[in-house]
Amino acid sequence: MKKKSIRKYFTIILLAVVLAFVFRSQLFASYIVNGESMEPTLYDGNLLMVNKVVYDLTDVDRFDIIVFHANDTDDYVKRVIGLPGDDIVYKNDKLFINGEYMKEPFLKSFKKASAIRPYTGDFTLKEATGKTTVPEGKLFVMGDNRKDSLDSRKIGFIPIDTVVGKVDITYWPFSDLQLGFG
């Protein structure tokens, strides 16, 4: 009787380990924020859960926080600002996409608390990248810490196919636990 019970538990544990491995490796990935470019939304050392399959099912949305391969060794965490076909202008600390003012509610409290004025310096897409619109298959991304972010204003557009996934959860430290970002 004990051998059957042991086999049963072993089978359940083995199945759980296999499912956890598949779940972890195929659907989600864990990342550590390295640096201050997404502060105050994400902080250096935060642990993130990245949904790797969401963009197989839907398109990337403006203001999503994503992880992408910046090069062969580094992955970056940034916020999507521009989608293919967009013209981007930042003037007087306001974002305009295709001539339309776009609210950035995720920056509201940070702008108020910041001693730095303007929070985001003026630029046009052409000044930042040499292009007048975001090319097909590319994204324009920025860090929330606009004064200290290595983003599309410096590195140019990022290919959509380098996107690892969407940041859905910050789970460490527990005091910074957050589900979803807006």
TrEMBL record:
| Family membership | Belongs to the peptidase S26 family.
The answer to whether keyword Protease applies is yes
Q: Which reaction does it catalyse?
A: Cleavage of hydrophobic, N-terminal signal or leader sequences from secreted and periplasmic proteins
Where is the Peptidase S26 domain positioned along the sequence?
7-172
CDD domains xref list:
S26_SPase_I
Q: What's the chief localization of this chain? A: membrane
Subcellular location, record wording:
Cell membrane; Membrane
For the protein in the UniProt heading, the enzyme class is hydrolase
Sorted alphabetically, which PANTHER family does this protein's record hold? CHLOROPLAST PROCESSING PEPTIDASE, SIGNAL PEPTIDASE I
Under InterPro entries, the record lists: LexA/Signal_pep-like_sf, Pept_S26A_signal_pept_1, Pept_S26A_signal_pept_1_CS, Pept_S26A_signal_pept_1_Lys-AS, Pept_S26A_signal_pept_1_Ser-AS, Peptidase_S26
Q: What topology does the record note for this protein and the membrane?
A: Single-pass type II membrane protein
- The entry's keywords: Hydrolase, Protease
Protein name, entry field:
Signal peptidase I
User: Does the keyword section mention Protease?
Assistant: yes
